[in-house]
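User: I'm new to structure prediction. If I give you an amino acid sequence, what do you actually give back? Let's try with this one:
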Amino acid sequence: MSTITMRDIPVQKNSAPATDAQKAARYYNSGTAFQLEQSAVPPATFVNEAKKALDPDARTGIIYCDSSAALGLNDPATTPNVLARYVVVRPGEQLKLAAAASTMIFYCITGSGQVGDGDAVIEWQTGDVFLMPGDQAICLRSRGDRNTVLWAVGDDPLLRFMDLNAKSAAESSIAPVHYPAKEIRRQMDLIYSAEQEADTAGRAIIFSSENHDASRNIAPVLTLALNTLDPGMETRPHRHNSVAVMLVLAGKNCHSVVDGYIKEWSELSTTITPPFAWHSHHNNGGVRAELLIVQDGDIFTHARVNGFSFA
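Assistant: Good question. You get back a string of structure tokens that encode the predicted 3D arrangement of the chain. For your 311 residues, that looks like this:
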């Protein structure tokens, strides 16, 4: 009887490779292949990054919400599939954002500006959301007399992991889409004029686009929602397989409970709810709370493993 176990067997190679292709082969077994150790997605909150971006003296540039060290990744990443960043553009200046992403979602925290050329120009204002393909540098031009600060989120880490390049704009299903702040408010008022069903997770706008209307989401991987929570209310504890990357738009005296850990909200910070973590949100303040939430949710929905459930 052998005294070794399958887990004692190191990775195997072809014993007598005749070609480079044979030399590249590796063999694991069922005792070793599934013992891969991965770091957990940290439930980080990026407060200092927001403060740096919102400093009136901030220079034109990009401030990443970066957890790559904790995730064991070599490039900036907020989560394994998502990278959030604050983009600062001073008045009269422009920034070319080169993102190796299929999708870029933008929210204008403050200021105003312009993106695109010719008939495809988007003029954005504070509170606007816009969607851009990420296959080429996105030129963000600031207008007005104060800094423009944008929250920009893409699926850059996922494309790097998959060793893929984004499709060209001509081939991609991701096209520029503009969601003006005024229309977002109108949609939220419409939602609040209706009765809420007992089995819905609060009152929220789910952003979609003409090209992705069938999925009811904004893009093939990323989803975007504007969630609200009224004063004195809390959400039912729930979980899902996707990560949640959240920008706190309004949330004084609010907090989340993530796997039993209390996370206080800080307005305009970016905060992370790890995948499959039990969590709930609580509004102890006097005004409606709002969270702009990007998730890598559509990829899980497509695979039929959304995993949403209430406790």
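You can read the tokens as a compact description of the fold. Here is one thing that stands out. The mean pLDDT is 93.
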